[in-house]
Amino acid sequence: MGSYSALYFSDVKALPEQGEISDDSPYLQARSHLPLLWLALFCPEDIVDVPDPDEPANPWPYLVAHRTKTMATLAARRELLTLRFPAMNPDWFDQFAVVLEQAPSEFVHLDTVEIMVGAGPEWRQTLETLLGMFEDDASRAQAGWRQFNSGYSGPYEGESATRPWTYCGGSAGSPMPWDPAE
Length: 182
What we know:
Layout: E1 4-10, E2 27-31, H1 36-39, E3 47-50, E4 60-66, H2 67-76, H3 78-84, H4 90-102, E5 107-111, H5 120-131, H6 138-151, H7 164-168, E6 170-171
Antiparallel strand pairs: 1-2, 1-5, 2-6, 3-4, 4-5
């Protein structure tokens, strides 16, 4: 069984409790990676530390932002993403943006605990650096792209680079618009 990251929506900013995620809302997963469009939704200030009940001194980072903010952030990063990832079908970007726009909940959540590399504070630093690749500050952007290229670019190379799940993730429920027709 693989480790998954998850993108989902809820009406609470805090980590949702069991049953607080609506069945009417998209729930996306990605096995062993962070889809590019998910990362493009967030900024470093969207990272919060969630206490680990088993290791209180080792909180794990969690990303959460208001849905309307993530929509604007994604739109602002479109040109950069299109230039850096020419294999990404523009339709996937548009389809992902529509799913985000139509989600019935107020907040977007990105849970990466299952794919964390290192302890919580180390993973937080990795996420902050990765998110820097979208910033205007040249040194932070360069550091972010170096981090991405050193350990996270694998799914974006070769045949995987032409698959929608690489950029959008996959649904854990209803098919998504970018899913291939059967």
